[in-house]
Design goal:
The complex is a heterodimer of chains A (226) and B (804).
Chain A lengths: L37 H5 L31 E7 L2 E7 L5 H8 L18 E4 L2 E4 L12 E3 L13 H8 L9 H14 L5 H8 L9 H14 L1
Helix pairs in contact in A: 3-6, 4-6
Chain B lengths: L14 H6 L14 E7 L5 E7 L9 E5 L25 E7 L2 H10 L1 E6 L6 H5 L26 H6 L12 E5 L2 H6 L3 E9 L2 E2 L8 E6 L2 E5 L9 H8 L6 E4 L15 H12 L5 E3 L3 H7 L2 E2 L2 E9 L5 E13 L6 H13 L4 E9 L13 H19 L3 H8 L9 E2 L4 E2 L5 H12 L1 H4 L6 E2 L2 E13 L6 E6 L5 E4 L9 H12 L7 E4 L18 H28 L6 E4 L2 E4 L5 E4 H11 L14 H10 L4 E6 L9 E13 L5 E11 L6 H20 L5 E2 L4 E2 L20 E4 L17 H17 L7 E2 L3 H8 L15
Parallel strand pairs in B: 1-12, 7-33, 10-11, 15-16, 22-23, 29-32
Antiparallel strand pairs in B: 1-4, 2-5, 3-4, 6-16, 7-14, 8-13, 9-10, 9-12, 14-15, 17-18, 19-20, 20-28, 21-22, 21-27, 24-25, 25-26, 28-29, 30-31
Helix pairs in contact in B: 6-7, 9-10, 10-19, 11-12, 14-15, 15-16, 18-19
Bound molecules: FE2/S2 (inorganic) cluster (2 copies).
Chain lengths: 226, 804
């Protein structure tokens, strides 16, 4: 075997995916922007599921589809990061979807969309919630804070954000918005947590990069400063 | 030599966007008129599409388009298609739909009627090797990098010859050896012989592989999630069917890859192809967690057997290794090669035979996952080293020190050809780690009981190759004096795009505040760099940035000579100025020199380029030509041998023999990764790698239902990555900090072994707590521990995969 040393990584990782060469193709036809009505646009609501379609054939329980979202949207007002916003929201629409796709606040991340990871963590009246698994209509009258609402209006970072930078806590950064919100909510409720309290408070936020120790150090450092 | 930047921490320029939420990942892409793409995934593990009835689907309000398998490029039988009419695993995309809203897209998928004919399938490699066993693909069951697609069935005799718990060993398409294993075993004082199973597991990147694309003016714009901004592009362009120059790629952030997004992948091309069909209309593909699980690749599992001989001083005299790799339904990744190589590096056997059979299964496609093959090696073999140490009565550190490559790698060898290593200090890492960890004192508590809890200690090593050559560097000094380091390294979260850029700044003596890193996509005019994978970035791109900076330096001195007379040699650089060597008098600032370069044009401003650089680098250099002094070069520095990343990990655990729970009390990893360039970065990787490794050892695995070929562990919960509550959060890290002679700055990276040595050390610690009980199965889940502690038989069949 040629590939059996001495070698370098390019032998294992060819340019592009580790797949056989792909052949064939098609032409490009011109595109004119289609008319998108506001009504159609606003119908985009949360849904997931890959095998929904095939499920009537065999193995029907392979992937549970999310509840049908084809209800009538209703206008509601939502207080996000101190501002009241009026949005049309479908009956089963999740807060994670609303902030990301209707309000353009893409800092809140969707890692699992099923209450497993905490990437979507936001605050509602100061308490952390998984926005992927919270119905937006239930947030009427609540004060929602997303990661975009953590820094001061002039851009000054919150001590938790600054401490995360100082401790090089974020790696890929995808869990970071959730970690920031969880850390801030903790210190709002308990400005002097013990390490153990902080660890438990943060434990709803998975980090696949495994940066827990650095995030925890960040929270404890911020606690000394707030 | 003392460095100004190398070896010191810095604040990566992208990190603030991560804490404020302004960092844009692929799914954060939005455009006017954007349509939503979804896929119909196969409900069967192996099938043929007989017909697709879209009549109802096309009536869904908001429906825009369908994309069928025959509208996209199709790979060879063992390739990884974008859409397929012969799905080979559950969830594989067959049809893509586009609709005005995501809900309409989902409704369209739900209304599609896809008539499928079920085909035979297999989820356990050994089942496929039996006479009459199913083939995962029509026409064959064995493939792999460098292995022809073929049907391979072992004889009944092959199976019968194996003892009850022993791996049968029939014909193997991969076989290599060196030395004389018979002689090696003849001189062994102790021989250990065991079979083992290593599960497959998901990458579980927190960000699913969403993508978005549109076409404009003949160019295809793609937002993708990848570890490798440059290196992903050629493959992506090929999948889309365009020239590299027609791809505009944006990949500023990557929400976790761990090998699963090492380069490009079929789903990344899908929105671009749908957009092409729609005349360029923006298309957005939001990938769900389940879709990520089904299509996001996984680490290959193994079923294996080994016979290891040891002399009375613990030195390995012979190793005979046989592994069967669960390849998934495509060519997958050559983890099998890496098993043989990794063993040969970490234990330096004088005599060795390696055999491997990569077997196709109808399970999630396998790709590289952090230490692909190497980390399974650590997990499979390190507990066996402990077994031999116990039989010989040798301390487990000493057992490893006597075999490990050390002393700079003198005499150390790798693989079938027994090639050299660029340098190696694994032995020193073991010694240093044992000292820091307090191994001698602490391990005296091995087996100590406190109620149901038993204390255990483990040590293990791991390896991954860590560097390449032949890639390009590109830097630019603009007339304002700023140094722009253009880098095509991805943003996986290791910040090595930044730490390697600092090499260019170091060479040119720059204040870090005067440096801008240009990264994140083609618009930043990036050179062709190797990807951010395989522990290679630090070594490889320290070299590319070094050669580009040296080119810039040479040009600076030439400019000084041309304007102030004399030879370039008469000048030097200091504090971002050119000085005369004779009296250190300042001739001009870098800013002035950059303006002169613009005025002089030619090679100085990037109008004339070296012949040997990659097409991508050439395009980028041409785009920035005339804007400053351009340093550009291909890395042709000498490189002989394999650059290794090596680690030694130490773990302390309490194992509850009544509940099977494992409490990791402490761990330490010491790395041999050359000169440490970014200390806190190494700390973060050491700890993060360990967390991932502990999950690999304890909880993470794929489980396929053998009766239906359906994944039964398709969520975080079912293959649990560890959380804040599962790991110690006050730990140390270390490095031997010895330079690699084949890197101009002595730098070598480390990424994958940080996971492998930690997971293997944990497995060894659990065994140690249980008096040396060997599980020979990874992960070691709680009921295995309870059964072992109670002296009960395990609930899984020997060598079975897909066990809970
Ligand atoms: S996205 Fe909400 S918990 Fe994972
Ligand atoms: S930083 Fe990557 S998941 Fe936490």
């Amino acid at each position: 075997m040629d590939a059996s040393g001495p070698y370098d990584p390019t032998l294992d990782y060819p340019e592009g995916p580790a797949i056989a060469e792909i052949a064939g193709g098609g032409d490009i036809k011109p595109w004119r922007p289609l008319h998108v009505t506001r009504r159609n646009f606003l119908r985009g609501v949360v849904c997931s599921g890959i095998v929904i379609g095939g499920s009537s054939y065999l193995f029907s329980a392979a992937t549970p589809a999310r509840a049908d979202a084809r209800g009538v949207e209703r206008m509601m007002s939502l207080t996000v990061n101190g501002k009241t916003r009026h949005v049309d929201v479908a009956p089963n629409e999740t807060l994670g979807y609303t902030v990301r796709y209707r309000l353009g606040l893409t800092g809140t991340k969707i890692g699992c969309n099923q209450a497993e990871c905490g990437a979507c963590t936001v605050m509602a009246d100061g308490r952390t919630i998984y926005s992927c698994s919270t119905l937006t209509h239930r947030m009427r009258g609540k004060d929602i804070v997303t990661v975009e609402g953590i820094a001061a209006a002039d851009g000054t970072l919150h001590p938790v954000q600054q401490a995360f930078i100082d401790e090089l806590a974020p790696q890929c950064g995808f869990c970071t918005p959730g970690q920031v919100v969880a850390g801030v909510a903790l210190l709002n409720a308990n400005p002097n947590p013990t390490e153990e309290e902080a660890r438990v408070a943060m434990s709803g936020n998975l980090c696949r990069c495994g940066a827990y120790e650095h995030y925890l150090r960040g929270v404890m450092k911020a606690a000394r400063e707030v | 030599m003392a460095y100004r930047l190398i070896g010191n921490d810095f604040t990566p320029p992208d990190i603030e966007a991560k804490v404020t939420g302004s960092a844009k990942y692929a799914e954060d892409f939005r455009a006017d008129g954007m349509v939503h793409v979804k896929v119909f995934g196969s409900p069967m593990p192996h099938a043929k599409v007989k017909s697709i009835d879209a009549d109802e689907a096309m009536k869904i309000p908001g429906f825009v388009a369908l994309l069928l398998p025959d509208e996209v490029k199709q790979p060879d039988v063992t390739g990884f298609p974008i859409l397929t009419s012969e799905p080979k695993y559950h969830g594989q995309p067959i049809v893509a739909v586009a609709a005005e809203t995501e809900q309409a897209a989902a409704d369209t998928v739900a209304a599609l009627k896809v008539d499928l004919e079920m085909l035979p399938f297999v989820v356990d490699p050994l089942d496929s090797l039996r006479q009459g066993g199913a083939n995962a693909l029509e026409g064959g069951n064995v493939s792999g990098r460098g292995v022809d697609f073929q049907e391979l069935k072992w004889t009944g005799k092959d199976f019968a010859a194996a003892a009850e718990n022993e791996l049968p060993r029939g014909a193997a398409p991969i076989e290599w050896s060196f030395g004389d294993i018979d002689a090696g075993f003849a001189e062994a004082a102790v021989i250990v012989e065991d079979s083992f199973v290593h599960a497959t597991n998901s990458h579980h990147a927190m960000e699913p592989r969403s993508a978005a694309a549109f076409w404009e003016n003949g160019k295809c714009h793609v937002w993708g999630s990848t570890q490798s901004t440059s290196f992903a592009q050629p493959g992506l362009a090929r999948m889309i069917g365009i020239e590299l120059k027609d791809l505009v790629f944006v990949a500023e952030y990557c929400g976790g890859g761990f090998g699963g997004k090492a380069t490009s992948y079929p789903l990344m091309a899908l929105p671009a192809l749908m957009s092409k069909k729609l005349g360029g209309r923006p298309c957005h593909l939001r990938v769900s967690r389940f879709e990520e699980y089904a299509n996001g690749m996984a680490r290959s599992g193994f079923q294996g057997w080994t016979r290891l001989g040891f002399a009375s001083d613990g030195r390995i005299t012979a190793a005979d290794i046989f592994v069967v790799q669960d390849l998934g339904p495509t060519t997958g990744f050559p983890d099998f090669n890496n098993v043989g190589n990794a063993f040969s590096v970490v234990f330096q056997p004088p005599n060795m035979r390696f055999r491997a059979v990569p077997v196709l299964t109808n399970t999630v496609p396998k790709g590289p996952q952090r230490g692909p093959g190497e980390n399974q090696t650590a997990n499979m073999f390190e507990p066996l080293i402990d077994k031999a140490a116990r039989e010989l009565g040798i301390d487990r550190i000493a057992m490893r020190e006597v075999n490990a490559p050390g002393n700079g790698g003198v005499g150390a060898k790798i693989g079938a050809k027994q090639g050299p290593l660029t340098s190696a200090f694994l032995k020193e890492a073991l010694t240093q780690g044992a000292e820091t960890f307090g191994w001698a004192e602490r391990s005296a508590n091995s087996g100590m009981r406190k109620g149901p809890k038993a204390r255990g200690y483990g040590v293990a090593s791991a390896y991954h190759s860590a560097g390449s050559s032949g890639f390009d560097g590109l830097v630019r000094i603009t007339p304002d004096g700023t140094l722009h380091v253009h880098t095509g390294v991805g943003n996986l979260g290791t910040y090595s795009y930044g730490s390697t850029s600092r090499v260019a700044a170091e060479v040119l003596g720059y204040d870090w505040d005067h440096v801008v890193i240009e990264r994140g996509g083609t618009a930043r005019h990036i050179p062709f760099n190797l990807g951010q994978f395989g522990s290679n970035t630090s070594f490889t791109m320290a070299r590319t940035n070094y050669v580009a900076a040296m080119d810039a330096k040479a040009k600076l001195l030439e400019i000084a000579a041309s304007s102030h007379g004399g030879d370039p040699d008469d000048y030097d650089i200091s504090d971002e100025r050119i000085v005369r060597k004779s009296d250190m008098g300042v001739v001009m600032t870098f800013a002035e020199a950059a303006q002169m370069a613009v005025d002089m044009g030619d090679k100085y401003a990037g109008h004339v380029l070296p012949d040997d650089i990659h097409e991508m680098t050439r395009t980028s250099a041409m785009a920035i030509a005339g804007t400053g002094l351009v340093g550009v070069a291909k890395d042709t520095l000498p490189k002989d041998g394999t650059a290794p990343a090596l680690t030694a990990s130490f773990v302390e655990v309490d194992v509850d023999v009544e509940t099977g729970s494992v409490e990791i009390l402490d761990f330490l990893t010491v790395s041999d990764c050359g000169i440490v360039n970014h200390p806190t970065g190494l700390a973060a990787q050491s700890r993060g790698g360990a967390v991932m490794g502990f999950g690999l050892a304890l909880t993470e695995r794929h489980i396929y239902d053998p009766a239906y070929g359906i994944p039964n562990a398709a969520s975080f919960y079912h293959g649990k990555p560890l959380s804040y509550l599962d790991v110690p959060l006050n730990t140390q890290w270390g490095a031997v900090n010895q330079p690699d002679p084949q890197n101009p700055m002595g730098i070598r990276g480390v990424g994958e072994p940080l996971q492998g040595s930690a997971s293997a050390a944990l497995l060894c610690a659990i065994s140690d707590a249980l008096g040396g009980h060997l599980f020979n199965r990874i992960p070691v889940v709680t009921d295995m521990i309870v059964n072992a502690a109670a002296g009960q038989p395990q609930s899984h069949k020997p060598l079975a995969t897909n066990t809970v």
